[in-house]
Amino acid sequence: MTGFVTTCEGEIYQLPTLFAWRFSYTGAEPCDSFSVSCPYEQAMADVLRRAVRFTAKEDGKTEFFGVIDEYQMTCDEKGTELEITGRGMAALLLDNEAEAVTYQRAAMAEILKNHVLPYGIVCRAYDELCASAPYKVASGSSQWKALRDFTHCCGGFLPHFDRDGTLTLTKENRIPGVTIDDTVPVTALCYRDRRYGVISEALVVDKKTRARQIVRNANLYPRGGMCRRIFYVPAHSGQQAMRYTGEYQIERSAEDAETMRVTVSGDFDAQSGGTVTINGGKLGVTGVFRVTEVVREMDENGRTTEVTMQRE
Question: Three-state SS for 100?
């Protein structure tokens, strides 16, 4: 693995040999993150003060591209060391606030132009979405929220950042699935099924017209879940916005509810947003899970891959 930093002037410098690195891929929120360590040399001081981006490459392929948040140099009996930490490109949308605006007929191209592209983010592909009702970006919203709410409400999907920092805004999942069975060198397993706090039924009510819409948790309600919440939406929000509100609140309450965490020795080709089919295993849990985070790490103990998943 080779690390590079890019300065605010666009100059690229290669870092000394990395002796430890950790990459966390979520593809969405919380955004991807990285941490790398390498020997430090005095000549690097000026470059680091101007460094704004980090790139990791292996065998000619970009394994991480993101924003440098912090770096520190240390000197002790073990020598001099540099540690750089940061986040993926979604950080630029999370850190920047959007102006309050109401779009009468918002389209994906317009959302990209106003909320994404000004920050130097490259969009690899997107669906031509168009809101059927006015779309509002509330005061205090981040640019990420402006984009995420639009794709979720109008397209039923969330934005996804790839490992090379490019953005994909399509409903079709092109990420290949993988399988974990007895042939995979699994070193640790953890399964959790949390029911507390997970909404089984959301009742969404229009404040003025009193129109009502019930949205149910398809995973929990049939299993006897009994946790109803009532949500009020602005006047004349429309059925689509009401359904979105209910689905969104259910999804947020169910985050990390039924999870599987698997640690594999060496590299494992699971990707955030993709699926993992669990066959066999000592815990007796099988099925298809959606990957929410992949952590690849290398230190003095070698390489490991930790995959965190939610049941589909």
Answer: coil
Coil, strand or helix: which one is 68? strand
| Distance between CA atoms of residues 162 and 56, nearest Å | 13
Q: Are 170 and 157 in contact (CB under 8 A)?
A: yes
Which CB contacts under 8 angstroms, 24+ apart, belong to 234-242? 234/206, 234/207, 235/206, 235/207, 235/208, 235/209, 236/206, 236/208, 236/209, 237/133, 237/206, 238/132, 238/133, 239/211, 239/213, 240/132, 240/133, 240/153, 241/133, 241/153, 242/204, 242/206, 242/211, 242/213
253-267 tens-digit pLDDT: 887 788 999 999 999
Which phi and psi angles does 236 have, rounded to 5°?
60, 40
Q: How many residues does the chain have?
A: 312
Question: pLDDT band at 187, cuts 50/70/90?
Answer: very high
Residue 203 has pLDDT above 90, yes or no: yes
Closest CA to 73 of 47, 111, 102: 47
Q: Which residues, including other chains, have CB under 8 Å from residue 252's CB and lie 6 or more apart?
A: none
End-to-end CA distance of the chain: give it in Å, rounded.
33
| pLDDT at residue 219 in the model | 82
pTM: 0.83
pLDDT reported for residue 312:
80
Token output for 155 = 């397209």
pLDDT at 197: 85
SS3 247: helix
Q: In the numeric block, which tokens belong to residue 83?
A: 């540690």
In three-state secondary structure terms, 290 is strand
Euclidean distance between CA atoms 108 and 73, whole angstroms = 43
Residue 29 has pLDDT above 90, yes or no: no
